[in-house]
């Protein structure tokens, strides 16, 4: 046996992981403390005062769960939850379906791929306020899609979802898909580009159709990518606010109300801090339900690696 195998194990000269890039970590401490302090402190403050009867100004007059009971008996809040659920489910399904379809098409290395990718991703660079105003004009029956189609001779054509309480969420969904699909496309495209080309060669040799290769092999391999995209999209859905304000302001009536707008109006318009804090806490719980399982999956995956 070689002498190297019998050589005594010397002390590990590698630097302790904790002290790697020490000065960078020290420089980041103030920023971390401020960020964590504001986030954690603000969260605790909001939760604590959600159990009080604070009105225009915060006050520690405890009322227990009264604010939450009033919240869940308020029709406007219930409508906002229902709207968010409808918008969220439809947005998740359609965003991922369209995003994956576009990513799969671009992954075939088509001509002018860079141009198409830029065009499809461009809406994501716009703010929701800009997107909302643009689509408010497009969906306006006086000079939008309805007016253009009627000008072509289809006088009976009607398409004014923003002015119909039963269809207003469709108008919001169209604008949301226009802005968010490009991001999901890019994320999934990056995942597809990480797939080993030998898998595609083997599937072609075995005569497996492309759609079956995607369903049976590729999509399961992209599970971490899908989870990351799911967290990003879902967190954005829960915080939906500016798109609604720009397009409908919650109307007609309260037919397009969403939780974030309910919180804003309760805090700053009706000046009911206790009720607004209770609604904010419910939104926080929703986000936590989404993020905690994702964080556990990420941690477990790194631990297994």
From TrEMBL:
Record's GO cellular component terms: plasma membrane
Any single Pfam family the record assigns to this protein: BPD_transp_1
Membrane-topology descriptor: Multi-pass membrane protein
Localization (cell): Cell membrane
UniProt domain ABC transmembrane type-1: residue ranges: 81-296
GO biological process: transmembrane transport
Family stated for the protein in its record: Belongs to the binding-protein-dependent transport system permease family.
Protein name stated in the entry: Sugar ABC transporter permease
Organism from which the protein derives: Salibaculum griseiflavum
């Amino acid at each position: 046996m070689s002498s190297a195998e019998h050589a005594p194990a010397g002390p590990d000269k590698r630097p302790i992981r904790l002290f790697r890039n020490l000065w960078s970590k020290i420089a980041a401490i103030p920023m971390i403390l401020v960020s964590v302090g504001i986030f954690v402190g603000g969260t605790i403050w909001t939760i604590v005062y959600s159990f009080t009867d604070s009105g225009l100004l915060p006050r520690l007059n405890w009322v227990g769960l009264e604010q939450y009971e009033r919240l869940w008996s308020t029709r406007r809040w219930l409508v906002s939850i229902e709207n968010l659920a409808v918008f969220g489910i439809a947005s998740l399904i359609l965003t991922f379906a369209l995003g994956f379809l576009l990513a799969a098409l671009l992954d075939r290395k088509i001509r002018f791929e860079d141009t198409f990718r830029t065009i499809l991703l461009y809406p994501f660079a716009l703010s929701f306020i800009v997107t909302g105003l643009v689509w408010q004009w497009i969906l306006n029956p006086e000079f939008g899609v309805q007016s253009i189609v009627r000008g072509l001779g289809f006088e009976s054509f009607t398409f004014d979802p923003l002015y119909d309480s039963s269809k207003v969420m469709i108008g919001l969904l169209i604008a949301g898909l226009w802005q968010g699909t490009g991001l999901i496309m890019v994320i999934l495209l990056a995942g597809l580009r990480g797939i080993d080309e030998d898998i595609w060669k083997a599937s072609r040799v075995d005569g497996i159709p492309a759609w079956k290769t995607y369903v049976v092999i590729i999509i399961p391999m992209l599970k971490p990518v899908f989870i990351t995209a799911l967290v990003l999209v879902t967190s954005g859905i829960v915080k939906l606010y500016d798109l609604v304000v720009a397009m409908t302001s919650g109307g007609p009536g309260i037919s397009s109300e969403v939780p974030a707008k309910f919180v804003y109006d309760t805090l700053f318009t009706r000046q009911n801090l206790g009720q607004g804090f209770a609604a904010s806490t419910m939104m926080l719980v929703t986000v936590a339900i989404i993020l905690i399982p994702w964080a556990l999956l990420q941690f477990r995956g790194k631990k297994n690696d």
